[in-house]
Amino acid sequence: MQRPVGEQLRQWRERRRLSQLDLALSAEISTRHLSFLENGRSRPSREMVLRLGERLEVPLRDRNRLLLAAGYAPVFPETPLPDLGAALDAVRHLLAGHEPYPAVVVDRNWDLVESNSGITLLTDLVDPALLEPPANVLRIALHPRGLAPHVINLGQWRAELLGRLRRQVEITGDADLAGLLAEVSGYPCDDPVDEAPAGSVFVPVRLRRGDAELTLLSVVATFGTALDVTLAELVIESFYPADAATREVLSGGRPA
Questions:
Q1: Per residue, what are the HEC states of 236-253?
Q2: Is 113 helix (H, G, I), strand (E, B) or coil?
Q3: DSSP letter at 197?
Q4: 182, 162 contact by CB (below 8 A)
Q5: How many CA atoms lie less than 13 Å away from 17 in the CB half-sphere?
Q6: How far apart are CA 40 and CA 198, in angstroms?
């Protein structure tokens, strides 16, 4: 059952830890008007829903839900991935240009939607059952039949991944993501770590592959100006060698 728009606005405001005064000042409306909107005494205009959604940094998918709850049609399209045209071409160009280093594209649920050939460096170590679509990169990374047994600093890397997912759950309030967090948090880890070490610049993944130890760092990119739900939810994660030895192996200097 769809919740009233006022209730949804209040929950988004509380999720952002904003007072009514904070949001009212940001949206340039009175606290009385905002209070009336949240308790259902006033119905927001379409423009007001969009303004509050922007100030609250509500994801595009959920802004559409706010509009529907207020009685308006959604304004942000949700284009199927194969129909994204130039944007999808740009993503694939980025993936190809990153080779021989691994790179992946994941959606809102951390499901793998695109990758380059370099990702076999990681997936060769994973139980093929975990790679069956829809392959979830968090399960691939942390499952005991996934990469986890090959990661030397599993506790540290696991803490970084779980922290990212936990922040996403807090920002979106998404029940499916909360379920994923509960699942992957329960995977075994002999050396659990609560957070990254103090003073660290980034958290690498140290991977044991054959006789080689590879150290990779990752860079995450998104489409910052996307006005399409599908495009806004895509995340590109690119892995880079963090030391000369790893760079030599990934560049074909010697077998892994």
A1: EEEEEECCHHHHHHHCCC
A2: strand
A3: P
A4: no
A5: 2
A6: 46
Per-residue pLDDT of the chain (256 residues; tens, 9 = 90+): 778 999 999 999 999 999 999 999 999 999 999 999 999 999 999 999 999 999 999 999 999 999 999 999 999 999 999 999 999 999 999 999 999 999 999 999 999 999 999 999 999 999 999 999 999 999 999 999 999 999 999 999 999 999 999 999 999 989 999 999 999 999 999 888 776 554 445 689 999 988 889 999 999 999 878 899 999 999 999 999 999 999 998 887 554 4
Helix (H, G, I), strand (E, B) or coil at 161: helix
**What type of residue is 13?**
R
Token pair of 240 as six digits: 């880079």
DSSP structural state of residue 42: S
Token pair 């559409």 is at which residue? 64
Q: Residues 6 or more apart from 253 whose CB is under 8 A from it? A: 247
Cβ proximity of 70 and 42 under 8 Å: no
Between CA 149 and CA 125 the distance in angstroms is 9
Stated length of the chain = 256
In the block, which residue shows the tokens 């949206």?
27
State the angle between helix axes of 154-172 and 175-185 in degrees (0 to 180), rounded to the nearest 10: 160
Q: With H, G, I as helix, E, B as strand and everything else as coil, classify residue 26.
A: helix
To which residue do tokens 């150290």 refer?
215
Decide if 249 contacts 256 (C-beta within 8 A). Answer: yes
